[in-house]
Design brief:
2 domains; 4-stranded antiparallel β-sheet
């Protein structure tokens, strides 16, 4: 499903050149649960941005479902992000004075999905993410950190993407709540077949995945 071939990412700032990724090559198959880990500054977030079609490599090839992403237009990349990839971030990125349901439905509103269908799809995503139904009409700022992250997961799921990219999803959570969120990802992977790519700098979190790709100084170790 995901294939990176000799990916390099170089940032230029005046006369200074920073080589963030160096000949990165790996594959992730459909239905895998993979962690990409390494210390801060290792390049793992840059890899996530490339996989998520948010950034492009300086050299090398990235294939998603056997399609060369470098050949896509900006509009085509936006469609890929909208339809194939769900993003979950450390900071949740929810609207605070907005209900859980509306937060989850927002991507569907932008996509022009009819109102009745939006509710049905949002409810299904919230059930898959494991958020109790009696929380659905709460404002997001009335929820615990773990509940907010499950809302964020539901929002990532609502368009039924084949890939979920999670960037440090437990970073703002205590250990017990983080375990609950990780179990949600595990259930999504095992029960629904979603491909999960988890970005983390924590070894204990990475070990919850089926496979670990360890990055250091822009290189796979």
């Amino acid at each position: 499903m995901i294939r990176l071939e000799k990916i390099n990412k170089i940032y230029n700032s005046g006369e200074n050149e920073t080589h963030v990724l160096k000949d990165i090559s790996f594959e992730i198959k459909k239905g895998e649960f993979v962690a990409i880990t390494g210390p801060s500054g290792s390049g793992k977030s840059t890899i996530m941005h490339i996989i998520g079609a948010l950034d492009s490599p300086t050299t090398g090839k990235y294939f998603l479902d056997d399609q060369d992403i470098s050949l896509k237009t900006d509009d085509e990349l936006a469609d890929i992000r909208k339809n194939k990839i769900g993003f979950v971030f450390q900071s949740f990125n929810l609207l605070p004075r907005t209900s859980v349901l509306r937060n989850v439905m927002l991507p569907l509103i932008y996509a022009g999905i009819p109102k009745e269908k939006r509710y049905e799809m949002a409810a299904s995503a919230l059930e898959s993410a494991g958020l109790e139904k009696n929380r659905w009409h709460h404002f997001s700022n009335q929820l615990s950190g773990g509940q907010m992250q499950r809302v964020a997961i539901a929002r990532a799921l609502v368009n039924n993407p084949s890939i979920i990219l999670a960037d440090e999803p437990t970073g703002n959570l205590d250990t017990k709540t983080g375990e609950i969120v990780l179990k949600t990802f595990r259930d999504l992977n095992k029960q629904y077949g979603h491909t999960i790519v988890l970005i983390t700098h924590e070894k204990e979190i990475a070990e919850k995945a089926d496979r670990i790709i360890f990055i250091k100084d822009g290189t796979i170790i």
